[in-house]
Design goal:
- The complex is a heterotetramer of chains A (about 55), B (about 220), C (about 210) and D (about 280).
- By secondary structure, chain A is mostly helical.
- Chain A contains two helices and no strands.
- Chain A has helices at about 5-10, 15-55.
- The longest helix of chain A has about 45 residues, at about 15-55.
- Chain A is rod-shaped, with a radius of gyration of 23 Å.
- Chain B has one domain (about 1-220).
- The longest helix of chain B is centred in the last third of the chain and has 30 residues, at about 190-220.
- Chain B starts with a helix and ends with a helix.
- Chain D folds into two domains: about 1-35, no CATH class; about 50-279, no CATH class.
- Chain D has a two-stranded antiparallel ribbon with strand order 1-2.
- The chains are: A mainly alpha (about 55), B mainly alpha (about 220), C alpha/beta (about 210), D mainly alpha (about 280).
- The interface of C and D includes residues 18, 33, 205 and 208 of C.
Chain lengths: ~55, ~220, ~210, ~280
C-alpha cells in the first residue's frame, strides 16, 4: 500500500484526516496549555515567596 | 409546616400584586414571541399549524426562564433569604412555596393565554386542548427545574445568561414531550403517551427539585 | 447553653481564625470586638448555621447544631447588616410574616403594639420603602419584641439608630439577658450592661507591628 | 516564623477565651482534630507528590495504547465492504463519545464525595476533569459530523446519540461557565458539584426523551452503527483506543489537579518549600 494510496484513504481523505487530525491536535494542545499554566502558577508563587522573604529580611 | 407554606406563598403573591407591572412582563413576552413567528415565517396557515407546538413551547420555555432570575434575587438582596434559611421550617417547603407563587404569577397566565394565541395559528380545538394541558403540566416543571439554576447562580455577575446556560439542557425533555404531545394530537396519533411522560417529569421535579434548590441556596448564601 | 470548640473559618482562601473556643450560658452577653475584616460577621453567621465552619464543633445544649437543624434555628434570631424586610410590604405585614415564619404567628394588634414600642407611631402601615434607613432598622428590630428565641445574634444592631432607639434597644437586650436569654452582638458602641454578664471576645490578627 | 501573639482579653469576672494568629501550629493540638485535619486539610499536600509520580506513568501508557490503536485502526482493521475507508473514523468517534460520558460520571462521583465529606480535594478533581470531558464531547461531535458527511451527505444528522452528545456538551459548558462565574473557591466547588449531580440525574431522562423524539419523527432509518458489522478486530481496536483515551484523561486530569492545588494552596508553608518553586 503506497503512501499516496494510504493518504487518499479510498477517497475519504478529508473526512478521515479531518477527524483524526483534529483529535490529535486537541489532545496535543491540551497538555501544552496545561504545562504553560503550571509554569505561570509556579512563577507567581515564587514571586509571592520572594516578596514575603523581601519583607521579612 | 403547611402554615409556613401558606404564609410564604401568600406573601409572595401579595408582593406580586403590589408590583402589578412585573405580573404581565412574562405574559407579554410570551405573546410577543409567539406572534413574531408568523411575521418571520409567513402567514401560510399550513406551515403555521405545523410549527405551532414547537413555537408555543419554545416561547413558554424562554418566558419562564426570563422570570427565573427574580425568583430568589430580590430576597437575597434584602436579607429575606437569610431569614428563610434560619426559619424553623424545612427549607424545601419554603422553596416549594416560593416556586408555586412564582408559577402562579408567570406560568399560569401563559397557560390561560395559549388558547387565545392558538387562534393565530388556526389550531384545531382538540390540539388546543392538549396544548393547554401540556402547558399546564409542563410550566410548573420548568419553574421547579429553573429554581435550581436560579439558586445556583444567586448573586453572580451575568447571572441571567448563566441561568439559561445551566437550565436549558435540563429543560429539553419537557420541551420534547410538551410539543410532542400537541403534535401527536394534531397529526391524529393521540398525545396520551407524551402527556403521561410530562406528568411523570412533573412529579419527579416536584420531589427532587426543591431539595436540590435548597441545597443550592445553602451553598449560595454562605 | 451554646458551646463552641476549636472553631476555624476560611473565607475564600484566607484563614480568618482558628482554634476558637468559647461557652455562653443563659443570661450572658458575648460582645465581639475586632477590626473590619477580622471575621466577626463570619463567626456570627457560622454560629447561626448560615455558614459551614471548616473545622471545630458548635454545640447547642450539648448537641451539634447541624444535627439539631430546625430545633436549633427555632431558638435563634439573627439580624445582620441586611434588614430582611420587604420594601413593598408595610411594617405590620413584614412583622407578621417574619413571626409567622419564625413559628409563632402574631395578631395584627400585637404587630401594631410592637411597632409603636419601637417608636414607629404613625408609620406602621406605610410601605417600608418610604421609611428611612433608621425606621427600617426599627422594623427589623421589632421582631425581637415578639420573638421567643433564646439566642439573639445581632450584627451591628445600633447602626442607623438615633439615641432614643439605642437606649430602647439596650433596655430590651438587658431585659432579655435578665430573663435568661443569650445575646451575641457586635457594636462599636459601649454596651451598658452589668459587668458580670458580659464576655468580651477580641478577634483579629495581632502580630508584631500590626495595627 | 512570626511570633505568636496571643491576644487574651479578660474582662468581667468570667475568664474568657483567647484567639491566636492563623497559619501557626496550634499551641495545644488535640489528637482527634489532628486526624480529621489530616484527612481534610493536608490531603491536597500529600496528594500533590502522589499525582506527580502518576502523571508520567499514565502519559506513557496513553502514548503506547494510542500508538497501537492507531496502527491497528489503519493497517489491521479490514476495509469495510460498504463504507470503504471512511468508517475508520469510528475508531476515534466512539472512544471519544464513551470518554465524554465516562468522565461526566467520574465527575459526578467526585462531586458526591465532595458534598458528603466536604473534602477540598474532590472539588478540585471535579474541576480538573471538566475541560477534558468537554474536549472529548466536542471531539465526538466533530468526528460524528465528519463521519456523517460522506455517509449521509449532511454534516449534521439529528440522530439520537449525536443529539444527546450535543446536550452533554451543553452540560459541560454550563459547568465550566458556573465555575468561571464564582470567585469564592468553596462555593464554586460545592455549586459545581450540585450542578453535576443534577445533570447526572437528568442524563438518562434526556437520552430517553431524545430517543423517543428521534424515533417519533424519522423512524429508525438513519442510525449510526447499523452500517458496518462489528468485526472482532474492529472491536479490539476501539477498545484499545478507548483505553488509550482513558489513560490520557487520567494523566491530564492529575496534571491539572496539581496546578489547581498549587493555585489554591499558594500561601501555605508546604508549597513554599516545594522544589519546583525554589528554582
Amino acid at each position: 500500500m503506497s503512501v499516496a494510496e494510504f493518504l487518499d484513504m479510498g477517497g475519504y481523505a478529508l473526512y478521515v484526516w479531518g477527524s483524526f487530525g483534529v483529535s490529535a491536535l486537541l489532545m496535543i494542545l491540551e497538555p501544552i496549555m496545561l504545562r504553560n499554566h503550571r509554569r505561570a502558577v509556579l512563577q507567581r508563587i515564587a514571586r509571592i515567596i520572594r516578596i514575603k522573604a523581601g519583607e521579612k529580611v | 409546616m403547611f402554615s409556613a407554606f401558606r404564609t410564604l406563598m401568600g406573601r409572595d403573591l401579595l408582593l406580586a400584586m403590589r408590583r402589578r407591572s412585573d405580573l404581565f412582563t412574562t405574559l407579554f413576552f410570551f405573546v410577543i414571541v409567539v406572534s413574531l413567528f408568523p411575521l418571520g415565517i409567513g402567514p401560510e396557515m399550513n406551515t403555521l399549524r405545523l410549527i405551532a407546538p414547537g413555537v408555543f413551547w419554545v416561547a413558554a420555555l424562554l418566558a419562564s426562564m426570563l422570570a427565573l432570575e427574580r425568583l430568589f434575587a430580590v430576597d437575597y438582596e434584602d436579607g429575606a433569604l437569610e431569614q428563610m434559611l434560619l426559619a424553623p421550617q424545612p427549607l424545601f417547603v419554603l422553596v416549594l412555596a416560593k416556586v408555586t407563587a412564582h408559577w402562579l404569577v408567570t406560568g399560569l397566565p401563559l397557560v390561560l393565554m395559549a388558547p387565545l394565541l392558538g387562534l393565530q395559528y388556526d389550531l384545531s380545538s382538540e390540539a388546543l386542548g392538549v396544548m393547554v394541558l401540556s402547558l399546564l403540566l409542563g410550566t410548573p416543571a420548568l419553574s421547579l427545574i429553573g429554581a435550581i439554576g436560579a439558586a445556583l447562580t444567586l448573586g453572580l455577575r451575568g447571572g441571567g445568561v448563566l441561568v439559561s446556560l445551566l437550565v436549558l439542557p435540563l429543560y429539553i425533555p419537557v420541551l420534547i414531550f410538551g410539543s410532542g404531545a400537541v403534535e401527536a394530537t394534531a397529526s391524529g396519533l393521540g398525545g396520551q403517551g407524551h402527556i403521561s411522560m410530562l406528568g411523570a417529569i412533573l412529579v419527579l421535579s416536584l420531589l427532587l427539585a426543591p431539595l436540590a434548590a435548597s441545597a443550592a441556596l445553602r451553598i449560595s448564601v454562605e | 447553653m451554646l458551646e463552641v470548640a476549636g472553631l476555624a473559618c476560611i473565607r475564600g482562601d484566607r484563614k480568618l481564625f482558628s482554634d476558637l473556643s468559647f461557652r455562653l450560658e443563659a443570661g450572658e452577653l458575648l460582645h465581639l470586638h475586632g477590626h473590619n475584616g477580622s471575621g466577626k460577621t463570619t463567626l456570627m453567621r457560622t454560629v447561626c448555621g448560615l455558614m459551614k465552619e471548616s473545622d471545630g464543633e458548635i454545640r447547642w445544649n450539648g448537641e451539634s447544631i447541624h444535627r439539631l437543624g430546625e430545633d436549633f434555628t427555632r431558638d435563634v434570631v439573627y439580624i445582620g447588616h441586611k434588614n430582611g424586610i420587604k420594601d413593598d410590604l408595610t411594617g405590620v405585614e413584614n412583622l407578621r410574616v417574619c413571626s409567622a415564619l419564625d413559628g409563632n404567628p402574631i395578631t395584627e394588634r400585637q404587630a401594631w403594639d410592637a411597632l409603636e414600642r419601637m417608636g414607629l407611631m404613625g408609620h406602621e402601615d406605610l410601605p417600608s420603602r418610604v421609611l428611612s434607613q433608621g425606621q427600617k432598622r426599627r422594623v427589623a428590630l421589632a421582631r425581637l419584641l415578639v420573638n421567643k428565641s433564646r439566642l439573639w445574634v445581632l450584627d451591628e444592631p445600633f447602626t442607623a439608630l438615633d439615641v432614643a432607639a439605642v437606649d430602647f434597644l439596650q433596655s430590651i437586650i438587658r431585659d432579655h439577658i435578665n430573663s435568661g436569654g443569650m445575646v451575641i452582638l457586635t457594636t462599636h458602641q459601649e454596651v451598658r450592661i452589668t459587668r458580670e454578664q458580659v464576655k468580651e471576645l477580641q478577634l483579629g490578627w495581632k502580630e508584631v507591628g500590626h495595627v | 516564623m512570626p511570633p505568636v501573639a496571643k491576644f487574651n482579653e479578660v474582662t468581667g469576672t468570667k475568664p474568657y477565651l483567647y484567639y491566636q494568629t492563623p497559619g501557626t501550629a496550634g499551641l495545644h493540638y488535640p489528637m482527634n482534630s489532628r486526624l480529621i485535619n489530616w484527612f481534610k486539610f493536608s490531603s491536597p499536600a500529600t496528594f500533590y507528590p502522589l499525582a506527580g509520580r502518576l502523571v508520567p506513568i499514565f502519559a506513557v501508557l496513553a502514548l503506547a495504547l494510542i500508538g497501537v490503536g492507531l496502527y491497528m485502526s489503519f493497517f489491521v482493521a479490514p476495509t469495510d465492504y460498504k463504507q470503504g475507508e471512511g468508517y475508520r473514523i469510528i475508531f476515534v468517534h466512539v472512544p471519544a463519545a464513551w470518554m465524554s460520558m465516562f468522565i461526566y460520571l467520574i465527575m459526578a462521583f467526585w462531586a458526591a464525595l465532595g458534598l458528603v465529606f466536604n473534602t477540598r480535594l474532590s472539588g478540585m478533581m471535579t474541576r480538573a476533569l471538566a475541560p477534558t470531558g468537554a474536549i472529548f464531547a466536542f471531539l465526538a461531535l466533530w468526528t460524528g459530523a465528519f463521519w456523517g458527511k460522506p455517509m449521509w451527505g449532511t454534516w449534521w444528522v439529528w440522530d439520537a446519540r449525536l443529539t444527546s452528545e450535543l446536550i452533554l456538551l451543553f452540560l459541560y459548558l454550563g459547568y465550566l461557565a458556573l465555575q468561571g462565574a464564582i470567585d469564592d473557591t468553596r462555593r464554586a466547588d460545592r455549586a459545581g458539584a450540585l450542578l453535576v449531580l443534577v445533570g447526572v440525574v437528568n442524563i438518562p431522562i434526556i437520552y430517553y426523551s431524545v430517543q423517543w423524539w428521534n424515533t417519533l419523527h424519522q423512524g429508525a432509518t438513519i442510525s449510526m452503527d447499523n452500517g458496518s458489522k462489528m468485526g472482532v478486530t474492529m472491536l479490539w481496536t476501539m477498545l484499545i483506543m478507548a483505553l488509550g483515551f482513558w489513560a490520557y484523561t487520567i494523566a491530564v486530569a492529575l496534571a491539572r489537579v496539581r496546578s489547581i492545588i498549587l493555585e489554591r494552596e499558594a500561601d501555605t508553608t508546604w508549597v513554599s518549600e516545594l522544589a519546583e518553586v525554589r528554582l
